[in-house]
Amino acid sequence: MPLKQRIASNFSRAAATYNSVATVQAEAATDLLNFYQMHSAGQPKTILEIGCGTGILSEKLLHAYPKATYLFTDIAEKMLHQHRATMQHNGMYVVVDGEHLPFSQKFDLIISNMTCQWFSTLWQSLEKLLENLNTGGVLCVNLLSDETFQEWRTALETAGATNVGLHYPDASTIQNHAFSGCTTIQKWQKIQEHYPTRQHFTNALKNLGVQAANAVVSRGILRKALAHFSSQEITITYSIHTLFIQKK
Ligand SMILES: C[S@@+](CC[C@H](N)C(=O)[O-])C[C@H]1O[C@@H](n2cnc3c(N)ncnc32)[C@H](O)[C@@H]1O
Q: Nearest residue CA, atom 26 of ligand 1?
């Protein structure tokens, strides 16, 4: 199955359970909105959300900007179904790959929480999203970089997995990328998430749809990788970059 189809189908499968395990994602959504508000004085009138999922960030946006016009998008149809079932608003929905928007409509704010790490051509796609901004508009995204899941990657490799997947953009490339014709502000933080048991960790991977871009590992390797952790509790690092890119 092609990668994008795999991502969409894994997230669709995770839609019903996603919110119950998305603690890091919820924390990151609050942080992303705060970062946007800290650096932007205006009230956005038109907002496009890429990879809105079940609506963890959308809910906060709707609360902060109740009069804005919204377009909520995601590559996974069932994530949007879940969003529609729980959210009250007059916004529109489109099932679409955020790397290939089929419209030229422009927005005051394009925002995305914990999604762009799934992009195949990150920089090209972010540059393309800038074309959908009004002058003075902001593209505000956060994404995971390569130190994320380092503990789990090491455990899988030690257990003999040859292609562990979990490929995230390189942190220094993110920090050094320049967007022409824009003012960029960014920050980088690490969050350590503690899973009380190995079962909690594997459930979280499954229910978050994280397996989407991973290589499929055998049960034997999975068991060995989990045994690599000396205690039942597993601590996993999430390395999160936040970018505020304002079009001049
Ligand atoms: C980790 S979830 C985050 C969901 C939501 N933003 C949140 O804060 O909870 C990533 C979301 O991005 C979506 N996604 C992944 N690749 C995408 C792409 N290329 N275009 C649009 N959405 C994508 C997934 O379907 C999933 O809903």
A: 53
> Which of 35, 44, 100 has its CA nearest to residue 73?
100
What is the reported pLDDT for 215?
56
- Set out the domains of the chain in order of their start, with CATH numbers: 3-145+169-190+239-247 (3.40.50.150)
Q: Could you tell which of 9, 115, 122 is best to mutate to test the pocket of ligand 1, judged by most ligand atoms within 8 Å of the CB?
A: 115
211 C-alpha to center of ligand 1: Å?
Answer: 13
Cα distances (Å, whole numbers) of residue 75 to 19, 62, 64, 72, 240: 17, 21, 25, 11, 21
Candidate from 4, 18, 57, 75 with most ligand 1 atoms within 8 A of CB, to mutate: 75
Q: What is the DSSP string of 61-95?
A: HHHH-TTSEEEEEES-HHHHHHHHHH--S--EEEE
pLDDT of 213 above 70: no
Whole-structure pTM value: 0.95
Residue positions counted in the chain: 248
Residue 231 reports pLDDT greater than 90: no
Whose CA is closest to 7, among 167, 127, 154?
167
pLDDT in tens, 89-102: 989 999 999 999 99
Q: What's the whole-number mean pLDDT along residues 139-152?
A: 95
* pLDDT for the residue numbered 76: 97
